[in-house]
Every structure is written in C-alpha cells, then in structure tokens.
Amino acid sequence: MLNKSVKHRDFKAQLLKDPKVRQEYEALEPEFRLIRDVLLRRSELNLSQDQLAKLVGTRQPAISRLERGDGNITISTLRRVADALDADLDISLKARSHSKV
Predict the structure, then answer these.
(1) In terms of CB atoms within 10 Å, which of 36, 41, 43, 59 comes out highest?
(2) CATH number, domain 2-84
C-alpha cells in the first residue's frame, strides 16, 4: 500500500512540473479543498451520505455528486450542507497572481 502511495506522489510531482498542468491543478484547488472538507466533516460526525442528504433535504446521489466534484452545486445547497455539518461556509474571491488588472 505504501509503495502505491509513493508512486502516486511521484507521478503527481512529475505531472506538476508542466506549467500548464500546474496551472489547471491550482485552479481546481478550491474545489478539491471543499470536497475534502465535506468528506472529513461528514466522517467526523459519522454520517453516511444518505444521512447527510436527509439533513440537507436532498437525496444521496446529490451528496455523492458533490463529493465526486460532479455537477454544478448551488451556493444555497452548499449553505444547507454546511448547516447540516454544523460548519461555516467560507466563499471568497481573490485576484489571481498573474492578473493583469
């Protein structure tokens, strides 16, 4: 198992040497972070996807899509997920480091 993890890490490092790949990866980081935070908080609360869905007022497949990063989730749904997880939702807008404005 550890070998597989090291290989993945090496593969990722190699890919991220390409500036275009790195730029795309960094652009997706906020989405990855949100997904990770939802998964961690759901795990901390020992909630299944189905249980979280009921608290949010949706169905389990919607939670699955959120955790996979599929689809376009609305801010209002994210607020309901945060409330169900007893968590704060922090959405921010920041200028890109390469911004010309």
Answers:
(1) 41
(2) 1.10.260.40
Distance CA 58, CA 61 (A): 9
Answer with the residue of higher pLDDT: 93 or 48: 48
Give CA–CA dist 42/48, Å, rounded.
Answer: 7
Average pLDDT of every residue of the chain: 89
Residues 6 or more apart in contact with residue 31 via CB below 8 angstroms: 69
Q: Please tell me the distance from the alpha carbon of residue 86 to that of residue 33, in angstroms, as a whole number.
A: 17
The arithmetic mean of pLDDT across residues 67-85, rounded, is 94
Structure-token match 């007022």, residue found: 57
